[in-house]
Amino acid sequence: MVKVAIFDYGAGNIFSLKSSLEKNGAEVDVITGLNHTNNYLGLLLPGVGNFDPAISSLISSKRAFVDIVKNQMPVLGICLGMEMFFEKSEEGKASGLGVLEGEVILLPNKFKIPHMGWNDLQIKKPSKLLDGVKDGSWVYFVHSYRVKPKNMEIVKADSDYGISVPAVIESGSLFGTQFHPEKSGKVGSIMINNFLRECKK
Q: End-to-end CA distance of the chain, in Å?
């Protein structure tokens, strides 16, 4: 059994993510600091909360997070969790974790904010996270922002709302989804299982 940790920003319910991981055979701890992560094979940053408060809850652990990335522990960032990988966000004034170059920008005002609902994935490049996921699969989004990476090669799938929204990113041991795999049925379960497989390596 693979043991992983969910970082809790104190901002919302992470029960569905914990439940999804456990259904896929993981042992899960919910933690509020990153200074004792040697017991885990993977880390998840969930998709609940606002940018500045979430970053502030991580700031004392930022050096530990950078070390986790350097040591190539698999990290899955979901929605806000993925957005925090980058340098800054239009949602707040705080600096992001900065482990990926780029920024997070507001969805165009022609959309109802937050954007909520099911959208299909357009798979662009091979991806460990998307192994076994078919092009055109539907996943569940709840978000107001989108990532704008400096290196677009890390974008493995996007979703088309009339604009192209990066939906899956992958860079080394960093994995990110703009949607919520824990709320995306069988397709999301495949991705959760793929992430846990990477944790076991």
A: 12
